[in-house]
Design brief:
With 106 residues, the protein is an all-alpha fold. It has one domain. The protein has 5 helices and no strands. It is elongated. The two termini are 19 Å apart.
């Protein structure tokens, strides 16, 4: 679910102080995007939202969530929005976020 090696790489690349800031911004932006999709899904912007979520989550090691976002992005590009399991996407993000926060002090 979480690529801890990627998290350690990012921490080494940016330093501890900047890592905390990067992780906090990531969580804030992803929380906002997930909430927007959950509360007011827009088929016209879903592909772009999932693309953003995929890239952001990949950078911070949320591998399972990133994979689901990628699959959803591809489905949205094909026009198969109904095939995207948003509930699974939301649950995976919630579990990934909880696991991350249990192991990383911000």
């Amino acid at each position: 679910m979480i690529d801890w090696k990627r998290i350690e790489e990012l921490r080494a690349e940016v330093g501890e102080k900047d890592f905390t800031e990067v992780a906090s911004i990531f969580l804030e932006e992803v929380d906002e995007t997930v909430a927007r999709i959950r509360n007011a899904p827009n088929p016209n912007s879903l592909q772009q939202d999932l693309h953003f979520l995929k890239g952001s989550s990949m950078n911070l090691g949320f591998t399972a969530f990133s994979s689901l976002c990628y699959e959803g992005e591809i489905a949205a590009r094909r026009g198969d929005v109904a095939q995207i399991d948003l509930l699974k996407l939301f649950e995976t993000y919630t579990h990934s976020r909880e696991e991350f926060l249990k192991n990383v002090v911000l």
